[in-house]
Amino acid sequence: MKKNRTFDKNQIVVLCLSLICVLLVFIIFFVSNHTISSVKHTPDGVTRAEVEEAYEFLDQSDAMQAALGDLSEMDVVTYGEYQQFLEQLHLWDVVELKAFSDWNDRKKEGVSLAVLLESRDEIRELFETMDAEPEPQIEESPIAETTPSIPQVDEHTNIRVLLLQGGEPLAKEIRFSANETYEISWKGKTKEKKKNQVIRAGQLKLAVGETAVIKSKKGEVYLADSQGNRDTLGYQGSFRITRYEGGYAVVNVVNIEDYLDGVVQSEMPAYFEEEALKAQAVCARTYIVKQLMQENYPQYEADVDDSVRFQAYNKSAPDERALEAVDATRGMILVESGLPINAYFFSTSHGVTSGREIWGLSELDYLQPVCGRPDVKLPDLSDEESFRTYIRESNAKDYDASSSYYRWKAALDVSAHLEEVKTLLRGIDEIRTDCVIIKDSAGQEVPIVVMDSWDEVQQLKVLERSASGAVLRLLIVFSDGSAELSNENYIRQVLGIWMETLQDKDGSFVKVGELLPSVYFYIQPVKEGIVLFGGGLGHGIGMSQYGANGLAAKGADMEEILDFYYQDVELQQLYSDYDENQD
Fold first, then answer.
1. pLDDT classification of 329: cutoffs 50, 70, 90
2. Which pTM value belongs to this model?
3. Which pLDDT does position 52 carry in this prediction?
């Protein structure tokens, strides 16, 4: 009996202790739940209002409201939305949000208030550190603000070249490597890779707006194809690969003289005369210094791209003669009134160069038409018959006569690709309304949409020529109206769509490109369609490269060539090999 009573007492003690524990758990849960609910409105996330309150310290209310406006209308802010919010404010990259590392599989859950406040405090600390640094004092100078000047350029100045991928600035994927050991720097770390080891940009897990830098200390970097084979020549300097919403952009950051090494050999045949190559080097250097004064690709942080829209770059293998021409003219540019000129150049003239009237731009004193025949007065080719007579001739004394495109013949099929032509005309009209004038059959100007129903081209007609023979205005006669087209580049684009065959000066068929060779042509209807008889390759403004070579072959030096094509300009030495700090 005693034994049983003892057992009952122990059992009661255990039961009481259990009840006390349960009560304590209940109290803790109640207090905890009450505390949490007083801090946030939902168990799993924070509200938009709390995000706004947490970041009031930024004092960027407009930017913050815009960023919040892009979030969903849901009350709770998700992880993905919070990341988007920080990216909008450009804050995602300035602080490492370690607390988010385990959230990858829980994208739909709300951001905890503790995490938000922690990231806010880290960003606040960073901003306070930045604010503590003294700002540089800049003296105001009215002259510097109103008078343009040559940018500070020396042999160490970098050129940022956007490398187009299939003609586009962005590519879905980029593969890169180097011919020697190289480094990849991204997300605050640097890794070394073996030579010729190909890496995909996708492997770097770059977020939108993040950049990786690829550089080889002893070699050159290059791009590769999907099989890992070299897809480009080697590049000096470094690659800067940035991820954007639409893909990756590749910018080659290279010093100005190495950049020119890649331009001269791509823009002019390396077998040309030495003095012609030197003239090309001066023009190319002048051109890029001029581009540094402008803002061409701010969205990609680039100065130029690698296409002929600026200067062809790194399209031909290195050649010693071209490299020597760049080195021999180191630091030299052409200036007028102390500023770099627009040193336009092109492949081949038909015997006469043009001014900027062919682009509808104002004339420049140093870009006047010149005649490419020695001791011959500049002809007036604005009359249709005078131009026909001139272009039918082939004069071996012309400085450009050695070029295959000195004279050419193009066959057009205007019955084909009509929709493509109309699409291009609509695109031109969106950019330059003054370059496309649409008229109905009664000769009344009408909106360009009226052209959509036109289904036949009946005639091409030259409405106006320049004194150099360039077609300034071209009339395209449709069955129900007409389109008047101006601007050298647009005329070449439209006629390039219709171009079926192209023959050079010797009658040999050559590859048909996207553009008509030039706007120096006359129109000849034939039974099979339309034939254009023309001459020259390129826009025709400034220095003719084949003309420069012809002048050099006749004994002209670099300065004489430049003086011939650019009037009343000066050769200026921006920098040279001499270093004042050397002993």
1. very high
2. 0.73
3. 65
Strands 481-486 and 457-465: unpaired
pLDDT tens for each residue of 110-129:
555 566 666 666 665 554 44
Whole-number Å distance between alpha carbons of 358 and 426: 21
Tokens of residue 287, six digits: 């051109």
Q: β-strand 199-200 against 175-178: which pairing, if any?
A: antiparallel
CA distance linking residue 302 with residue 296, whole number of Å? 7
Residues 209, 228: Cα–Cα separation, whole Å: 26
DSSP state of 483: E
Distances (CA, A) of 583 to 331, 569, 579: 22, 35, 9
Q: Is the pLDDT score of 136 beyond 50?
A: no
User: Is 531:524 a contact under the CB 8 Å cutoff?
Assistant: yes
Neighbours of 498 (CB within 10 A): 24
∠ CA 357-389-501, nearest 5°, is: 80
Tell me how far apart the alpha carbons of residues 547 and 561 are, in angstroms, rounded to a whole number: 9
H or E element at residue 325: helix 320-328
Spatial CA neighbour of 131 closest among 41, 83, 59 = 59
Pairing of β 304-305 and β 158-162: parallel
**pLDDT(99) > 70:** no
Identify the residue whose tokens are 């939108």: 208
Check pLDDT > 60 for residue 367. Answer: yes
Q: What is the CA radius of gyration of the chain?
A: 34
- If we measure between CA atoms, which residue out of 424, 375, 372, 377 comes closest to residue 398? 372
**Weakest mean pLDDT among 224-228, 400-404, 424-428:** 224-228
Give the single-character DSSP code of 57: G
Taking a C-beta distance cutoff of 8 angstroms, is the pair 479, 367 a contact? Answer: no
**pLDDT at 212 > cutoff 60:** yes
Check residue 17 and give its pLDDT: 56
Within 8 A by CB and 6+ apart from 3, the residues are: none
> How far is residue 9 CA from its own chain's centroid?
88
Would the CA dihedral through 552, 556, 557, 558 be positive or negative? negative
Question: Helix or strand or coil: residue 265?
Answer: helix
CA-based nearest residue to 266, from 235, 222, 230, 298: 235
| 568 contacts 336 by C-beta, under 8 angstroms | yes
Could you give the strand order of the β-sheet that contains 175-178, starting from the edge strand earlier in sequence? 199-200, 175-178, 221-224
* 118 contact partners, CB below 8 Å, separation of at least 6: 99
Burial of 434 (0-12, 13-18, 19+ CB in 10 A): exposed
DSSP 145: H
Q: Which of 365, 350, 339, 440 is nearest to 399 (CA)?
A: 350
- Residue 385, SS3? helix
Question: How far lies 169's CA from each of 31, 165, 175, 297, 306, in Å?
Answer: 58, 6, 15, 10, 10
Contact 131, 125 (CB under 8 A): no
Give the side-chain half-sphere CA count within 13 A for 434: 5
Task: Count CB atoms within 10 A of the CB of residue 11.
Answer: 10
Q: How far apart are CA 421 and CA 410, in angstroms?
A: 17
Q: Do residues 146 and 161 make contact, with C-beta atoms less than 8 angstroms apart?
A: no
User: Averaged over 251-279, what is the pLDDT?
Assistant: 96
